[in-house]
Write a structure and sequence with these properties.
heterodimer, A: alpha+beta, 6-stranded mixed sheet, 5 helices, disordered N terminus, B: mainly alpha, two-stranded antiparallel sheet, 5 strands, globular
């Protein structure tokens, strides 16, 4: 049900590019310009550390930019807050399709995206990619302890979990492109859809040389509600009884207003 | 126009929601039903989690019923004492229903139970209404609603009480039981349950027809308010923004519905409503027996 992502306006894109170029040059200065500064192999940052979900939120883009001190490939992994997910499967019972078997997965990220500077396959060796969780296929999704299930069945449920998340736009596998501007600067656009999960995210940037990760840097990113929608959900969480009473009052007021108007007309 | 629903945590098209509220409003003005039986399945179809669809519907129904009851109240067509007894029952039913809802949700069977209840109740009531209406339309006079027969054991129940407004002397247990049933329906199905309470009040309580609509509406207001409070405080499943969008559409639609009702023959209106109920029941039944494209579904627990 998520709406089609809207492309950012030309103006926004131009501005983002300008900011990124400016910050990128600053980074270069910091990296190589200042004598005595400790050389860092990898520096990266986000155009914003907060994705604000307001009432009119339809998804948003965050620009990640950075610089490296030498040749290498870049992989960016975005991980959302982890939660327990129950996957259920419908099976026909007396002609009616109902939920029968279910598997609970622990620690499933609410969001997962990868962007790389070249196709994932040739980027690094398989064990390296698995160790760092780079690529949707290498994401570890484990059933809750105590789950008794045949491995073939479990993989069906795991596939369904990934499929569901992909369809919701909350998982994406290796679609993102990290673009190098020159030899040192790189950038990528991270897209967050309208139904994105709120919470604390981490954006990890890996510098890969000769098939191995030589440097990694993690940046926090907060996805939170702001404005009216934040106030409503906070109110509902903090003072549920008062929230309920307010809801009742609001409905009463609309009904009473409409009823009175109708009575007059 | 996209709007982010703070509790459902999803972005929806505001115009679609207001439009659906409007359709339900037209129906409520036209037929005197709450329209919940259309809205709850619609919200679930839109991708709103079943729990939030049902919880929010309770909130929406308050407003719809308040605007409906005013007219009856002005004409004095409300048996307050009867409504109060029924309310006592529906408070019990609401608490019971909210509990049942939570248990079914943990079992992963809430969507199935909601669909099945809709199919059975809407199908049964819709078909019998349709049959009655067709007979009446063919004969050219209204169906005999109340079949007089001795109530037998119902009259021997304890707590026989006088209800002066309805000119009735019946056991309080009867309206209480009807109330319990109504409360469960609001909490589990997200409907006011008028389409079931009204026949119960006609056939079991034998209330005068003129008092039934107003009394059941008053009872529904109280019940939906109780359920809203419970769902909001226990299950956190009431989305006010969603409810208000539905209501705004609903009150506008109700005006048109009321005006249309003046041009519609009572028996024709009943037949149309019955047809609509049967259609919704059939649609949901088809959905249950058809092989789903995606048999797997995900439920994410709120991270703590």
């Amino acid at each position: 049900m998520s709406p089609a992502p809207q492309p950012p306006s030309r103006c926004g894109r131009g501005l983002a590019a300008a900011i990124q170029l400016f910050l990128g040059s600053l980074l270069l200065l910091v990296l190589f310009g200042c004598p005595g500064a400790q050389a860092q192999a990898l520096v990266a940052d986000l155009s914003s550390h907060l994705v604000a979900i307001s009432t009119g939120f339809t998804g948003t883009e965050v620009v990640l930019f950075g610089a490296v001190d030498g040749p290498g490939e870049i992989a960016v992994v975005v991980l959302g807050p982890k939660a327990r997910v129950t996957v259920r499967r419908k099976e026909p019972v007396a002609g009616i399709w109902m939920n029968r078997r279910s598997v609970v997965f622990d620690q499933v990220p609410g969001f997962y995206a990868v962007a790389t500077s070249r196709p994932l396959d040739g980027l690094a060796t398989d064990p390296v990619l698995t160790r760092h969780g780079i690529g949707l296929d290498r994401l570890t999704l484990t059933a809750a302890p105590g789950t008794v299930i045949e491995p073939a069945e479990l993989s069906l449920f795991r596939e369904a979990l990934v499929r569901g998340r992909l369809e919701a736009g909350l998982f994406s596998g290796g679609d993102g492109q990290v673009v190098f501007l020159g030899k040192r600067l790189f950038r990528t656009n991270l897209f967050f859809p309208a139904d994105v999960v709120t919470g604390a995210y981490t954006v990890t940037v890996f510098l890969i040389r000769d098939g191995d990760v030589v440097h990694a840097q993690s940046t926090p990113l907060i996805v939170g509600k702001t404005g009216v929608s934040a106030e409503i959900s906070e109110f509902a969480q903090r003072k549920p009884t008062w929230y309920g009473l307010t809801a009742i009052f609001g409905a009463f007021a609309i009904g009473l207003g409409a009823g009175t108007l109708m009575g007059k007309s | 126009m996209q709007v982010y629903l703070p509790i459902a945590e999803m972005s929806v098209n505001a115009l679609a929601i207001v439009g659906m509220g409007w359709v339900a409003g037209v129906l409520s003005g036209l037929f005197g039903v709450g329209g919940g039986f259309l809205l709850t399945p619609f919200l679930i179809f839109l991708g709103v989690p079943a729990a939030i669809a049902v919880g929010t519907q309770a909130n929406q129904l308050i407003g719809a019923s308040v605007s409906g009851v005013l007219g009856h109240w002005r004409r004095g067509a409300v048996d307050v004492k009867m409504a109060l007894v029924m309310l006592a029952g529906s408070a019990i039913g609401a608490a019971l229903g909210v509990g049942i809802f939570g248990a079914l949700q943990r079992l992963g069977q809430i969507d199935l139970v909601i669909s099945l209840l809709y199919v059975v109740l809407l199908g049964f009531v819709g078909l019998s209404m349709l049959a009655e209406s067709i007979v009446a339309l063919i004969r050219g006079h209204p169906a005999q609603l109340v079949k007089r027969s001795s109530r037998g054991w119902l009259q021997r129940l304890p707590f026989q009480t006088r209800f002066p407004r309805s000119k009735l002397y019946v056991s309080s247990l009867l309206p209480l039981a009807i109330g319990v049933f109504g409360g469960v329906m609001v909490a589990v199905m997200g409907i006011g349950g008028g389409f079931l309470m009204v026949p119960a009040m006609i056939y079991i309580l034998r209330m005068p027809a003129s008092l039934i609509a107003g009394t059941s509406l008053l009872q529904i207001i109280a019940t939906t308010a109780a359920v809203t409070l419970l769902q909001a405080s226990v299950n956190h499943t009431v989305d006010v923004l969603l409810a208000m969008l539905l209501l705004v559409g609903g009150v506008i639609g109700a005006q048109l519905g009321t005006r249309l009702a003046a041009h519609l023959h009572g028996e024709t209106a009943r037949a149309l409503l019955a047809l609509l109920m049967v259609t919704v029941a059939l649609g949901l039944a088809w959905h249950l027996i058809q092989q789903p494209q995606e048999p797997y579904s995900l439920v994410t627990e709120a991270p703590r």
